[in-house]
Write a structure and sequence with these properties.
mainly alpha, Arc Repressor Mutant, subunit A, Tetracycline Repressor, domain 2, 9 helices, elongated
């Protein structure tokens, strides 16, 4: 018997499938090379279904960034709140995530290029996404070191940059870069800050 969905559930499923299809197509062809028709076809829907959920392709990019950012933030927050060794839990999360690092990196780099090519003065949805990620890291670093957000902002930026750089290095040479390298790098940064006196009252 076919599953019966409410109207809202059906709309949410359609939107989710369109976002997943867009991520695949963007990684393959780039944002500029991805047509609305191709995204809709990949998801198994019509052009009309696409425009029933998104005003245009830029709106889809914004929604995709928001959805991926929220997903990562919620997953990391759940790990941080769980009992046990938080760092080991983060290592396991990064190991699982590394299985899709090439797809994730291709999408991320394409979205960065898309943002950089936008007209001067237009807001970048990627910049908004990066701000959310930095804010989340700032809170985590502040909590870990017992310092305020102002003091934690720059170390959080360093950790964020390390994550991007190590993702690129792992995609290029996975045998040389461990899946949990970003966790080790973060621990080294925080250890250095503790030794330098940051966070002391």
């Amino acid at each position: 018997m076919a599953e019966r969905l409410s109207r809202r559930e059906s709309q949410e499923r359609t939107r989710s499938r369109l976002l997943d299809a867009a991520a695949e197509v963007f990684a393959e062809t780039g944002v500029a090379g991805a047509s609305v028709e191709r995204i809709a076809e990949r998801a198994g829907y019509t052009r009309g279904a696409f425009y029933g959920h998104f005003a245009d392709k830029d709106a889809l990019v914004a929604a995709l960034l928001e959805e991926r950012t929220r997903r990562e933030r919620d997953e990391v927050a759940e790990l941080a709140a769980a009992e046990g060794d938080t760092w080991e839990a983060l290592r396991a999360w990064h190991r699982a995530r590394s299985e899709h690092v090439e797809e994730w990196l291709a999408l991320r780099l394409e979205l960065i290029r898309h943002a950089l090519q936008r007209e001067l003065g237009r807001p970048s949805v990627l910049a908004d996404r990066e701000a959310i990620a930095r804010d989340a890291l700032t809170g985590a670093v502040a909590h870990e070191l017992g310092i305020d957000a102002g003091q934690a902002a720059f170390p959080a930026l360093v950790v964020h940059a390390l994550e991007d750089g190590l993702a690129i290095q792992r995609a290029l040479d996975p045998d040389a870069v461990p899946a949990d390298a970003v966790v080790t790098a973060t621990e080294l940064v925080l250890r250095g800050l503790r030794r330098s006196g940051t966070g002391e009252s």
